[in-house]
Amino acid sequence: xxxxxxxxxxxxxxxxxxxxxxxxxxxxxxxxxxxxxxxxxxxxxxxxxxxxxxxxxxxxxxxxxxxxxxxxxxxxxxxxxxxxxxxxxxxxxxxxxxxxxxxxxxxxxxxxxxxxxxxxxxxxxxxxxxxxxxxxxxxxxxxxxxxxxxxxxxxxxxxxxxxxxxxxxxxxxxxxxxxxxxxxxxxxxxxxxxxxxxxxxxxxxxxxxxxxxxxxxxxxxxxxxxxxxxxxxxxxxxxxxxxxxxxxxxxxxxxxxxxxxxxxxxxxxxxxxxxxxxxxxxxxxxxxxxxxxxxxx
Length: 297
Fold this sequence. Notes:
mainly alpha
C-alpha cells in the first residue's frame, strides 16, 4: 500500500510544509530544492537528499508520518461524500515504505476506539502544556505505573514542552503522529509531570478576534433586517387596517378562489358517483366506497 502526495508549487506541498514547520529545512532551501526537482526532472526526495539539505532517514520518517496522518484524518471525518477511482501510484521505493493494509486497518481501529477519550482530555490542539517541575526528567517515571510507557517518542515530546508551544506545534516539531503525541501527553499528565497552562496560542487568539468580529457583523446585519421588517409590518397594518394582512380586494379574490375549489370538488364527487353506479349498478352509500376504488383521487 503506497500513498502519493500531490506536488504543487513552492511550500504548498504537504511534504514541504512538514519539513519547514518541523525545522528540518528552511523555506529558502525548500524552494531551491523544489526548483532543482522541476528543472532536473527528478523526484523531490532525491533533490533534497542529493543536495544534502535533508538526510535520507529524516526524509523517510517524514514521508511515513505524512502517510499515516493522511489516512488517520480520513477516519476522523463525521460525514461527507467521496469518489473512488483506482489508479496506479508511483513512488520512490528508496524513500517510501509500502504499508500493509491489514496493519493500517488495525491501527486505525485502535485509534477510532481510543480517540474519544483523548479528545475529552485534550479538546483542542491549541492547548499549551508546561512542566510542573522544569528540572524533572522522565526518570521520575521509574518505579511508577507509567514506567513501561516511557519511549524515545515520549523523550522527544517531553523535551519540547516549554510552556509556550501548543500541542499542534509539538506535533510538528516532534515528527510523532498526532494520535501518539496526544496519548503521550495524557500519560505525562496522569504521571504528574505536565499540566495545561492558561496561555492561548497567537493563532487561537487571532481566530477568536476574527470570530468576535464575525459575530458583531452578524448582529449588525440582523439588526438592520429587524428594523426593515418592523417598518414593513407597520406599513402593512397602516394601509390594510382590519383586513390585515390582506386588502379588501385580496379577500374577495380569496373567497372566489375558495368557491371555485368547492365547485370542482362537488363536480368530481358527482362524476365518481356516476362511475361507481356504472360499475356496481347502484350509488355508493358512503364516500369511503369511492375512495377505496380510487375514484376520488
